[in-house]
DNA sequence: CAGCTTTGATTAAACGATTAATCTATTGGA
DNA sequence: TCCAATAGATTAATCGTTTAATCAAAGCTG
């Protein structure tokens, strides 16, 4: 492996001159710069990141901590983050916080020990990652005060609920996976605000089983809004078993626009987040913070957009609002 | 940030003694070792990986190159790899080869420039990653001669086909996504061998559309074996549209056992790979290679296992084999 | 032409850890 | 008592890069 010293020896100059020529700093004659560049090319010189890191104190590596790498959204986030990082000559080290706050904090420490210049954190549900000795960008949801960038989960919920309400549904259900999750909470809050009082609603959690949800459909619910596509698929399978057809008997919506949304039949109406934009913003803010700027004290939320497909339709018969059913949240 | 020099100053000894005490090398009195350890703890000393890397030439970082980070299997691979790496004090840098061989080779180069000690490559379909200056472990399929570790895709295909044949199906179809993929090719080859001549079969590719597949069902195919769960979901939705019921009219199988396999209705019979074991083996071989051992000249294949659920059943009526249909491979 | 600035290069220190080589007591053996 | 062996520490070099400080020569000004 060629190093700066060998180039210097080859050219009969000092290492400082080579370094200056290659980095464009200091004072080196134009002619010398070109000769050194050429020589470096010929020797296939690649600067040692270790040497540079030692000298500069920066590694050019960012740490990414995900709550659970099997989260279906992880691939897309990782991909875009990796793309953005590449274009800035940075690399991304991954870590899994394995479902609990302790592992999350250990993962963060490991990455810091590794010498990452900054941290990108998608926090564990219901946790607030402690502050670290390196700049940290939290990717979560707008309602988290420590959040730096996020999709507008509440806005997405509002979009989908407005769509459902606009179709004329007057008795609807929301389906979440875990009430502890801020993201899902915000999505549901957004849905509620999107209904704008035009429909009765009830919230179900899949951890309690889907039986109650099916019973609700039997008693007149005409639309189900799930907080994830996978959950929507589960609901769809239960509805099918119970003899209900989507969207004829019940409209159904998801969240995130995963590949399965278009593989299902009917294809799922859902809401997509602009992961590329989130990644771009996250890396931008983080690199600025690394170079000394202070983190913004208020988070950016990236709008979501509605993807209307075949799983939503006008309700077959719009039942009269049932007052005993109104605004009640199960849990 | 505390460094070795500060500890040395604090204790009134030389840096060499501190280093020796902390790494357990050289000759240091037991008592001194303990005092130095204590002092290091108190100062919150973390060794600088950059310093160590510069001296030793090793970074403790492995590079992971995936063909497409949105590959549904990526999360699980990444998770287990990350777990195994952690337990060996290693970290994982990710890179995306973005669907083409050029980007794949660039990603590999970037990682090497970054100073990774070794490379884990899940190759782009139909490509053979060129050799790199660091040890490289290729995770692919057994039929790839450069492969070091893989799931037994052919074996998995055989398992599922044996299951289907055992149920009594005599006219079946395979559904793949891309004929260029070695993995899918091996899965299908395995299926064919699993049938052991007991059934007629035909192979379809989703890129040609699913119309031909449906027509095949209309003309008597009673089982469809897909090379991925997502593909199975697509097939299911088309079957439903065409009025066929699974598994009453057609049996359907997937591959990989993704979360959607249990969210579907009926729950999907599929085949699962032991990603943990693959990750373990991959990292083991790689770390050995990094420490000087030579790579095994023959790959290890990790067995898959069959997960029987509700999407497969005996055929309703076993049609007579149609000889014109026999052993013909479309595409 | 003396004095000053500018250009183009070099010297040497620094980053933090590891380690071969060296040095100094101390212990043991004969 | 003297020499050798050994334990326990130190010295100094090294990994590859950056950069402040320095220096020599050339160019410019009045």
Report the CATH topology name of the largest domain in chain A. Answer: Rossmann fold
Give, in order, the helices and strands of chain A. HHHHEHEHEEEHEHEHEHEHEHEEE
| Largest sheet geometry of chain A | 6 strands, parallel
**Unreliable spans of chain A:** 318-331
Overall average pLDDT of chain A: 92
User: Which chain pair has the greatest contact?
Assistant: A-B, 50 and 50 residues
Q: Would you tell me the structural class of the helices and strands of chain A?
A: alpha/beta
| The CATH class of the largest domain in chain A | Alpha Beta
Number of strands of chain A: 13
Order of strands across the biggest sheet of chain A? Answer: 2-1-3-4-5-11
Oligomer: homodimer
CATH superfamily descriptor of the largest domain in chain A: Response regulator
Strand content of chain A: 15-25%
Q: Rg of chain A from C-alpha positions?
A: 26 Å
Can you give the helix content of chain A as a percent range?
40-55%
| Shape summary of chain A | elongated
- Which CATH architecture of the largest domain in chain A? 3-Layer(aba) Sandwich
